[in-house]
Structures
1.
Amino acid sequence: MPVSSTGAACIEVERVKENAPKVLDASRLASLIEALRRRGYEVIGPTVRDGAIVFDHIESAEELPAGWTDEQAPGHYRLKRRQDQAVFGYAVGPQSWKKYLHPADVRLWSAERQKGTFRILNNETRPKRPLAFLGVRACDLAAIAVQDRVLTGDRYRDPVYSSWRDGAFLVAVQCTQAAETCFCASMGTGPRAQQGFDLALTELVDNSGHRFLLQAGSDRGVELLAELETLPATEETLRQEEAAVETAARQQVRSIDTTGIKDLLYENFEHPRWDHVAARCLTCANCTMVCPTCFCTTVEDISDVTGDHAERWRRWDSCFTMSFSYIHGGSVRATAKARYRQWMTHKLASWIDQFGSSGCVGCGRCITWCPVGIDITEEARAIRETGSHGNT
Amino acid sequence: MSSETRSKPARKPKIAVFKFASCDGCQLSLLDAEDELLAVVGAVDIAYFPEASRAMLKGPYDIGLVEGSITTHPDAQRIQEVRRQCKTLITIGACATAGGIQALRNWKDVDEFIRVVYATPQYISTLKLSTPIAEHVPVDFELRGCPINKYQLIELITATLVGRKPNIPSYSVCIECKRKANVCIAVARGVACLGPVTQAGCGALCPGYDRGCYGCFGPMESSNTASLTNQFHILGQSPEQISRAFRGFNAWSWQFRKASEECERQ
């Protein structure tokens, strides 16, 4: 039966109605996790471990970091108690979702010598169950989008990344507070998650109670949301939600001025600031390990003593190591200056030429988890303030 | 190599293990590699390994593993002969690669120690310094650690036998620590951890158990000890404490030596 234009409009109205924001009481958060598990997802979410909020396998809502928050500064992170029982009342932890989507160590294949021939064993590792990420911040959604482009955006798709990424269900959490190290607002990636999620959730704790505003971002999200016991959101709740996310933007004390940043960095290859930062940089590679968009890996071939068994492993690598730029005769980037400059210039400038966007999403992890607190926003500002601009 | 692929059995490479001033812990790592040791024994002739076997075959040897530092005149002579006997010479452990914990005497008057410690000091003949093997003879590969990691040793022997590059990284402990998804104790708890300036290889053992890195694997490839020293000050460490942190098993490595001496000057 042909659908008339009025019919199409009706479907559209229906869809909008279905997708209207809903309110879930905090006591029913467990039902969201249960609904995801019922659908066969392995739920990964935030939990407290070793003095930080990390991502791990989540069985129940009790494992979430209710009543905890984080205090962050350059080279500094402390887990702190909150006054309330907010579940998502923190900014970002040391780990990003690349822990799951782009794992640190992957066996690409193994092989065995049998009767004079060499047999490659098929040991592709596909997830047993699709993953559901609970608590994806706007910056991390932007980071996933960046890694999507880098690792699956052209005809050479990374099969490891794709196997985890395809079918993953993303539950975003809108930020209502910022850490001292956050600068997503200036990178245009947050604090509000606009797209790329299946479900977005904003936690509200105030006089009206402890509740979540839920908004579906995909058909899967609409379906899941329909299963939960929710109430329609009032105008008042929507206003409160708006204000809460604005608070997270307003609280941000760090920023990068991205105006013409590509040319700025390209033109300041010999700026004295690179020596200044090199004196502090440990070349320890922590910034690249915690960065949610850094994707570099190295490949290691290993064999046993008999030579009958061999394996090829892929591991996270970093542009801060000597071996990263090693070619016959030595490392191209032998100094800390060359390596820091390479990292920051790639992240903020040449990434744009290479992949069409900045490689930085403003999550601030590289600032917090640098053991000596090197601040990329400060380094970028120093170059802008004292560097050469244009060819004049 | 399986018998089918080989027309006639080639001579097995001969391995020798030599000990100088050390605690024997690194040699024990080889004996401790139970699962892999049988395969190693199958692939090589253990020609000289007094710690493990009375059988002692004469050199020359294909691979010589040297544990310990040089602390006496006879040892300084003996290492020359060991070098002549070994096609490939590999030093294992902090003593052999950096002088070991016994290099702490390098900052003190060793004659005074001898007078205080020994009942008959006249029997003691020793050098003023404890020094790594590479200060005496050319070394083909230095395997770090106090003690060494047995898996790294097996990897090094395997790679040497098949003629490929060993997968022994020289980057920081932090890379191993982050790959294991440990929470950084330096940042999250303010612990003075030597991980950022120390070479990987231990699997980030101590940070994984809530302890700061002790620097057992010596300085990493481009260790910036001055910057980490400054950070330790910020974390409330005194120059004495910082100096002591660098004066561990790898105290005499030039990077850690420089760092501790700069702290002493303050």
2.
Amino acid sequence: MRLVLLLLAFLLPSFATAADAPSRIEVYPAKVALGSNRATTQFVITGHFAHGETRDLTHNATFTLSAPVVEVRTGVAFPKKDGKAEITIVAGGHAVKVPVEVSGQSDPDPMRFRTETLAVLTKQGCNSGSCHGSPDGKGGFRLSLFGYDPAIDAESIVRGGLNRRVDAFNPADSLMLKKPLMRVAHVGGKRLNKSDNGYRVLLDWIASGAKTDDDKQPACVQLLVYPGPNRVLRAPHWAQQLSVIAKFADGTARDVTSLATYEISNKESLAVSDEGLVTGIKRGQGAVSVRYLNHLESVHFTVTEEVEGFVWNNPADVNFIDKHTHAKLNQLRVLPSDTCDDATFLRRVYLDLTGLLPPTDKAKSFLTDTTANKRAKIIDELLASEEFARYWALRSADLMRVNPKTLPGGRAELFADWLIDGYRKNAPFDKAVTELLTATGDAAKVPAANYFLAIPNLEDLAETTAQLFMGSRVNCAKCHNHPFENWTQEDYYRIAAVFTRVRKAPKGTMVSIAATGETTHPTSGKTLTPFGDAVTDPKADRRVSFAKWLTKPGNPFFARVEVNRMWFGLFGRGIVHPVDDFRSSNPPAIPELLDALATEFEQSGFDRKHVLRLMCNSRTYQRSTATNKFNEDDDTLFSHYPIRRLTAEQMQDAIGYATGSLAPASELAEELARAEKELAAAPADRTKQATVKRLKDRATYATQRLTPEQSAFLKAFGQPKRESPCACERVDEPTVDQALQLLNGPLVAGRVSSSADAFAKLTDAELTEWLWLAAFSRLPNEAERKKVSGHFKKAATRPDAVRDLVWAVINTREFLLQH
Amino acid sequence: MIARHELLLLLTRIVMNRFRLLRALVVLCAFATPAPACAADPAFLSDVAPVLVSRCASCHNGAKARSAYKLDTFANLLQPGTSDAKPVVPGKPEESELYRRLVAENPKERMPPGDDALSTNEIAAIKKWIAAGGTFDGSDRTAAIKSILPARKHPAAPEKYPVAAPVFAITFSPDGKELATGGVNEVTVWDAVNGKLLRRLPRLPTRVHALTYTSDGKHLIVGGGTTGEYGEIALVDAKTGERVRVFGTFDDIVLSAAFSSDGKLVAAGSADRTARAYHFADGKVAWRASLHSDWITGVAFSPDGKWVATSSKDRTVKVLEANTGKLFTTFNGHRRQYAPHVGQFEVYAVAFDATGTALSVGGGAAIRAWDPVKTQDENGSAADMEERFKKAGHTRYLEFAVGKPVFAMALGGGHAFSAGGDGVLREHDVASGKLIREYAKHTDWVYAVAVHPQTGRAATGGFDGLVHVFDTKTGDAVTNFVAAPGFSK
């Protein structure tokens, strides 16, 4: 990697040219103090250029010393002898002086097991989950995952295996070095080179006696990564040196740039060397995660480059959503697609907001409507509809495991209805979640209390709550600190401590709060304070403080997670994706957009409809799916609308409507009123009672029902079983079963077969137009009309012709896809 | 009988000396380049093969050999890999890929990749070997080169130990007056009563894990090696340390060795998962057994000479026929389902008492005492095996309370002495199963235990290099010392 950079440096235009010179340079760190013969300091020299552009000049700088107390190689200061001096750093025509102090060079400083040896084992991959860090180890050698338990590692490496791994007399012959060097056969392959810093660390540690008794040494409490939290790399300046400094409990700090482990979230766009030199590879963005012991920090990089022939087309912004999207697209030289046509928009917004296809009369009038703000009007109309509330509540209910199996006796329906009511009345989301998380009482009467009954145990409650409202998968932290994020085991049990006093009546439906009950750390045994705001009254319901902390504006998770879920509902992909995997190493595609949406959500009083309205009205949402030369590779930045298959429920209802067997749900109110009137006349009539109930529950609509229908068709298309809080439980992978269901599965076959009767009264031309409007929200074009009329002429009987046509229509991609 | 035995040893010694002379010549020649016809050109087995094994074979080996070039056997070594370039062109090193890749200037071509080049002496030896015709001085071209390597020459032991070395092996001399312990490239012999260093037996394997005296006390069987790459079992003069005979070499360190009661067989178990037996008289291999799936940690002969038991990290003990090495039975009593303690335990030591009862120990808070024949009778794969085991009652548990594994056990006077990770030496009466005594705690893990019933002494050696000698009648300490010559704290 260094070599590449050096080559790059030669190719760069000279900085002497005034037009390309930085206005100033910045040196990090501002002073150097090396207190041990092993201490080093990585410099990062940043040039500030016009338009706020920054470039890394670390490897183009010269370092001159007033006294030879250190030596600077590849931007790293190595100590030489005790003393003070000044380093003059020159880059881009600017000079900066940095004081340097070297001390303790003759004092012994034995290599430390916990802060150095273990860091190297992580860096070389020895203790990863697929190697010696797996629960049973590998090849008889077991290490703790990423070194979370130094005691296990100390025993395994030194005394374990009959001491065969370290050799104090011939340190270089230690098996622990010979194996990763492949001097002897190693199933894990070559993991170490003699030129690696890690080799020196391990060798020195063994040579100094392989001591593991540094458990009283101060622990690392913080990791400082510079630069951060994000950087733009503009071609040809695609390199950025990182500096990583660990802060310890005793206030000391140590440069650990060469000990830290670096990982890339998007390997197509970025690479990183073992010494923390980040290099751009291709236009795009990604995170570099820096791990040192149990700490993890990420820096987000955007890699840009001029693209030949690219001209920004300056699309107008409808609202701030477009502003942020366009800025990101322009920065990454991606050209957004055009706005989609009315038919596409109408079908798209109906499916996304209500789960249903637009009724044909709606579609026809919308297409001919010439009002300028007709799209905004339809969005308002849909957001106000009962169908919207039911469809969006279904999505929430999926994640809260609203399931008659776990919530019998009508409680699933009660809970589902409460969720629907939240959307119907547009309940402020902070209030709704507070009500949910603090619910007590008889769950047969208090709908929200069912949240606690749908989740089987305390750990699951902690995990589910974190996943739903903090977008975080904390379950790894149950057994050890989370390997990919900053969740610690202590955090996990502190979240559990919030709910530890929730009591459920055995076999009953009562949810109550006990006055006592604590959660302790599984290894230290320490009693943990609940996560969130401090609880002052020891007897108070801890959930109240937690909910207050969670829903307070400015909470790092709450608003961002929910707006991201809404975005996911409209685009099929989150700004952070997957939607419940918020972590620093999985950055948002457009961070400014996510932040702005979260702020808007908070400032609107957590008004979900308001945010959805903004999203639906944005140009970003209304883009065509058709790509151009400059955005065909993009599938993360929303430069074109993402095509996706209809969900299981959407598909079932769409097939019902297009085959003429399911009336538009908007007509239900009328039908219900009629049925209720009839029932009022004969209140004891069982059939009439059932009809009213069916209409009330909207049982014939998969997207509108209170609780999910269980059918082979829905299952085939990925309807979740509602057993986990993960949005991933709804699968969208194509399967053979799906193809067969669409060919002649019972649902398709039955509905296609009955369509002949349903459409018997329509003429060929009327039927064609109706079918096109129903299935595609558009009118058939000339070629299509001709083809259909030819088909009717050729057919033996009309019912067969109708069935074939209907079947063909619902098997088109235009019908099966959301576009 | 004795006279003949002595004569044999003498003969061997003469042959060994000759061999050493030859080697010295080879080394001299290597330095004397480019002198042409040297008296002895480098030989494949002694000068080329060891380098190939230690620097090349870890990648060019087996099904995933890099560039499909294998040098696991001499026959394969001559076959080109994917490059089709001939590895060895006799007489022409410059045209031989094997040599060219060692000296290539392009770092992408030079072997081993991303690692130090071979030493100039090593490269010179390979060059000269090819120049001289690249011939094979072994008998079987298809044998694994690793297995036909000559025994290694060992470096001198450190004059003064900078740190204490773990004691992996300890044994009393037949008269009980001396204690031999495994050191670094040596065996050190100490006065068993006052802990004074008596002798150093140098130029032995890096680590010594097995030590057993011949019954006359004149020789020692020394087993050891270098972890992960080499093991050997040798007969060593107990006074001078001279290796009288190397019985055999292994792919990993030798962890245990034992004599049959008639002294005719020597058995060794290695971390390379093989157990082997040799005829003491001529050093020939009696048998080889590759029955375990992990290190063999202990070997023991039954007093009637019928069985050899091998204990393993694979959680089993195997009982083999002593004369053939054929499997007689497998003892599974260290697995949870057959024992009162939960877990699956690696077995680190096995021994037979005078009555023929086998004792084995590892984890699981008990020494298992069992009868090989009854075990075999109860063996099988039937589902009710566990039930039958319980009913048969052929396994007795000599219990102790310790969570850490036990690494060593020695039998004497009807008692079993065992110690391990908790540093406590425990003495059980084998017949009654009762714990007789726990000796004063060792400061670190104990890896080695010895007992001498006639003098009533027991000794332990541990990770920290400390040796403790105890009086088994009183339980008192006799002496303790750090078995590290020249070491001072």
